[in-house]
Amino acid sequence: MFKPVRLIPDDTKIPFMRASRFGFFISGILCAASILLFAFLGLNYGVDFKGGTNFIVRFQQDANLDELRRKMNSLGLGEVEIQGFGEPTDVSIRVEAHEGDEAQQAVTDKVKEALGPDVEYLSIESLGPKVSGELTEQGTIAVVTAIIAIVIYIWFRFEWQFAIGAVVSLLHDVLLTIGLFAVLRLDFNLTIIAAILTIVGYSLNDTVVVFDRIREYMRKFKQMPLADLIDTSINSVLPRTLLTSMTALLALLALYIWGGEVLRGFTFCMIWGVLIGTYSSIFIASPILILLGTNRDTLGGARAKAVAEKARP
After folding, report:
1. What is the set of domains in the chain, with CATH numbers?
2. Per-residue pLDDT of the chain (313 residues; tens, 9 = 90+)
3. Cα(242)–Cα(255) distance, integer angstroms
4. What is the pTM of this model?
5. CB 299 within 8 A of CB 214
6. Other residues' Cβ atoms within 10 Å of the Cβ of residue 12
7. CB neighbours of 32 closer than 8 A, spacing ≥ 6?
8. 121: helix, coil or strand?
9. Which of 2, 67, 72, 133 gives 20 to 30 Å between its CA and that of 209?
């Protein structure tokens, strides 16, 4: 019989709450820097948000996307996004917007000349500034709505202190992701919005697991100091947390390396999100319960007593 491999021993006693003060300090500086970067430097918005022309073309043979990207980038048309579209012969080409109808027509002519005569154009659509503004607004609404829904869910599932801890953790993850994209000047498009929403879900899942164990131990160890209780709770779920994160990272790294250019921005954002989501559930969400003075009597004791009284014959 082979014994299971344990990367993290079951009896770990890492003092997370003692180190959380440094985590708050570092995270506070990084969040402030992210806000300043977004305000003064801004994001490198992709074609989805800036507008442009979208060509859906069909080649006679399977499209070579790498070669096509080199050809389009050599035209000097600005930002160009290329990805497969349905069949291997179909490709979507998005070229950023240029001011004026004549300039836009010149872009269309250049693209057609570079692709040659043996290409079938399934559609050519222009995405104007108004539509791009609507996409920006809808993407922002999607993120904000998700966070509000999470607040309501956590509030009903636990208590208001847990809801605030979860929201601060999620805002921390979103701000640091935006700051990273601002400083690295990576393309920010609708795919990244989808990645941010996925990060919010992943981070929330990790935070709820920790919160659930904290609530369980609040009922079990009523005399234990809150900081020690949270440390014990985190240590008890640490093997599960790290194994889940490592499994997700292995899959994402494979996608980042071999998934091609189309998925690279999404997977990069997700890799970053898994790392900071794991960090924030431990060093941001949990310590807030101490700062807000969570009352274990109202959280666990009173509810447990009420349930016990109802269960009596």
Report:
1. 19-42+132-304 (1.20.1640.10), 52-127 (3.30.70.3400)
2. 556 566 666 677 888 888 888 888 899 999 999 999 999 988 887 777 777 788 888 888 888 888 888 888 888 877 788 877 767 888 888 887 766 667 777 888 888 888 888 888 888 777 665 555 676 677 778 778 877 887 787 778 777 888 888 889 989 999 999 999 999 988 887 788 888 888 888 888 888 888 888 888 888 888 888 888 999 999 988 888 888 889 999 999 998 888 777 778 889 999 999 999 999 988 998 889 888 876 665 554 444 444 444 444 4
3. 20
4. 0.76
5. no
6. 13
7. none
8. strand
9. 2
* β-pair partners for 91: 57, 84
The burial of 51, by beta-carbon neighbours within 10 Å (0-12 exposed, 13-18 middle, 19 or more buried), is given as buried
Tokens at 262, concatenated = 């189309």
What is 85-110 written as a DSSP string? ESEEEEEEEEEE--SSHHHHHHHHHH
Farthest CA pair distance, the chain: 85
Determine the Cα–Cα distance for residues 216 and 210; give it in Å rounded to an integer: 10
Three-state DSSP at 34 gives helix
